[in-house]
């Protein structure tokens, strides 16, 4: 059965997926490309781009940029906009939490820059699509919606907490966009604990199932997928940390990201 049928999509969509040289991003790209959708991949450098082209030669396009850097986030957005409009953008890019604190060229904690600031700035700069999907994690439930030290410069580094916070922020971003852009379907996804480089070889969840939900949200005509401001696990709504739903916390996060990037997400 073709995935166009399984996703109940009546047209061919153009979809851009960040962090899609391997792992969940590449798995989602394969599902969409198999159904005939026009997929644009993203890799952080030329070597990763070559790997991605070999892994999915039927991808329509590929953009390159290391989104740990604000300047490179802008470069990625410019490349995407030069390709024309997209129906959906899947913000899949992310880094894990098992290493020490790494500081980016902008003086930010890498886990914050890649997991949250990149989706924020790309959302603000890429021409507005019809659908936005943000990858979060079940670990967001342990996140803290505090912005007094988001870069971990005054606290002792705790990678697990920093990651949980970043995934909480991802959902706050998704829900803030849903509130501010009522013409866009903006949702969050928990892909599960899957065997990627981040998840590790012992992860118990299925990689293909982990990628299915974001592909479904990106293209499906299923009424259950055509909602906004929701959080899904394996195509089913999932409960969230209640702080993600608080508009004042969402706005505080957007204001902080705007100060870092000099770019605002406007209504």
In brief:
With 267 residues, the protein is an alpha/beta fold.
Q: How would you explain this protein's 3D organization?
A:
This protein has 267 residues and is an alpha/beta fold. The chain contains eight helices and eight strands; from the N terminus they run αβαβαβαβαβαβαββα. Strands 3-2-1-4-5-6-7-8 form an eight-stranded mixed beta sheet, with helices on both faces. A hairpin with a 2-residue loop joins strand 7 (231-233) and strand 8 (236-237). Helix 4 packs parallel to helix 5. It is globular and about 50 Å long. It starts with a helix and ends in a 6-residue tail after the last helix.
Percent strand: 5-15%
Proportion in helices: 25-40%
Helical stretch count? 8
What's the total count of β strands? 8
């Amino acid at each position: 059965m073709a995935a166009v049928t399984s996703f109940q999509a009546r047209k061919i969509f153009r979809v851009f997926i960040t962090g899609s040289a391997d792992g969940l991003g590449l798995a989602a790209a394969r599902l969409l490309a198999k159904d005939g959708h026009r997929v644009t991949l993203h890799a952080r450098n030329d070597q990763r781009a070559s790997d991605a082209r070999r892994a999915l030669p039927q991808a329509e396009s590929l953009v390159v940029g290391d989104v740990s850097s604000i300047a490179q986030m802008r470069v990625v957005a410019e490349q995407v906009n030069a390709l024309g409009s997209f129906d959906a953008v899947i913000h899949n890019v992310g880094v894990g939490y098992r290493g020490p604190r790494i500081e980016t060229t902008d003086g930010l904690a890498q886990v914050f820059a890649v997991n949250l600031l990149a989706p924020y700035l790309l959302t603000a700069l890429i021409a507005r699509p019809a659908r936005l999907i943000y990858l979060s994690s079940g670990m967001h439930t342990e996140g803290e919606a505090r912005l007094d030290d988001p870069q971990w410069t005054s606290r002792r580094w705790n990678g697990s907490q920093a990651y949980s916070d970043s995934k909480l922020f991802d959902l706050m971003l998704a829900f803030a966009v849903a509130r501010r852009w009522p013409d866009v379907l903006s949702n969050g996804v928990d892909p599960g604990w899957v065997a990627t480089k981040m998840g590790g070889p012992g992860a118990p969840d299925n990689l293909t199932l982990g990628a299915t939900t974001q592909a479904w949200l990106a293209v499906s005509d299923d009424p259950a997928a055509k909602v906004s401001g929701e959080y899904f696990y394996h195509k089913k709504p999932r409960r969230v940390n209640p702080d993600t739903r608080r508009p004042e916390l969402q706005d505080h996060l957007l204001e902080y990201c705007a100060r870092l990037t000099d770019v605002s997400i406007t209504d």
